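User: Can you recover a sequence for this backbone? Please restate the input before giving your answer.

Assistant: Of course. Working from this structure:
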C-alpha cells in the first residue's frame, strides 16, 4: 500500500548518492516503474521544496491522474499551493547550522510522516480503539502483546487469551471476532475479509 521512492534508489539509504536528486527525469521514471495511476496518492518530500527529482516525480504522477501532495519545511510558494491537492509546511525556522536540513526540518518531517501513517493505519482498520490489533504473533514480545490486547478487549483471563490466540493462528483481529461472535477461525477470517478487515465494523466499537 505504501512505497518509498528515494533519489538514488536503495543504495542512497546506505551511502550518499551525490547529485541523484538533481534529475527530474529520474523522478518521473520512478513513478512509471511503479505504475502510478488515478487510484494513487503521491507525496513529495523536500525540506527546501525545490528538489528537481521530487518535482519531476510529482509532475509525472499528476499527468497519470494521481493526486499529489508536497511536504516541505519552508513557506510554500503560490504555485506549489495551486498545483497540489495537499501541501504540508511545518515552518521550523533557520537551522542551528546554516545549510543543513537534517536537523529541525528532518525531525519535523518525521513527525508529519508518523502522523500520516498513524491516521492511515486507523482508516484501514488496523486499530481498534487505540489498540494495534492487526498483529501477527512472530516473537515472544508480540505473543505477550497479543494476549494483553485480547485480555483488555474481551475481558478474559490470560489463559483464555492464549487459547484464542493459538486457535486464531496468531492473529489478534481473528481472535476477537471468534470470541465476540462465537465463530471458528476460518469463518472469522471470512467475515473480516468481507468488511475489509475492520474489526469495529464487524463486532462494534470498543
Amino acid at each position: 500500500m505504501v512505497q518509498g521512492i528515494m533519489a538514488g534508489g536503495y543504495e542512497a539509504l546506505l551511502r550518499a548518492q551525490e547529485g541523484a536528486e538533481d534529475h527530474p527525469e529520474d523522478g518521473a521514471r520512478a513513478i512509471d516503474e511503479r505504475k502510478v495511476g488515478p487510484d494513487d496518492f503521491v507525496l513529495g518530500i523536500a525540506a527546501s521544496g525545490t528538489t528537481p527529482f521530487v518535482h519531476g516525480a510529482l509532475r509525472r504522477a499528476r499527468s497519470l491522474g494521481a493526486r499529489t501532495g508536497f511536504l516541505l519545511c519552508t513557506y510554500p510558494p503560490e504555485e506549489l499551493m495551486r498545483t497540489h491537492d495537499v501541501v504540508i509546511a511545518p515552518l521550523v525556522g533557520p537551522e542551528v547550522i546554516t545549510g543543513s536540513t537534517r536537523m529541525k526540518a528532518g525531525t519535523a518531517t518525521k513527525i508529519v510522516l508518523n502522523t500520516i501513517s498513524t491516521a492511515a493505519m486507523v482508516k484501514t482498520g488496523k486499530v481498534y480503539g487505540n489498540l494495534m490489533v492487526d498483529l501477527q504473533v512472530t516473537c515472544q514480545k508480540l505473543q505477550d502483546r497479543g494476549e494483553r490486547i485480547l485480555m483488555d478487549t474481551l475481558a478474559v483471563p490470560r489463559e483464555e487469551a492464549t487459547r484464542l490466540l493459538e486457535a486464531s493462528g496468531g492473529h489478534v483481529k481473528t481472535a476477537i471476532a471468534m470470541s465476540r461472535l462465537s465463530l471458528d477461525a476460518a469463518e472469522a477470517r471470512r467475515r473480516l475479509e468481507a468488511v475489509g478487515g475492520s474489526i469495529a465494523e464487524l463486532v462494534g466499537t470498543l
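That completes the design. Residues 127-203 form a domain with the Helicase, Ruva Protein; domain 3 fold (CATH 1.10.8.1080).
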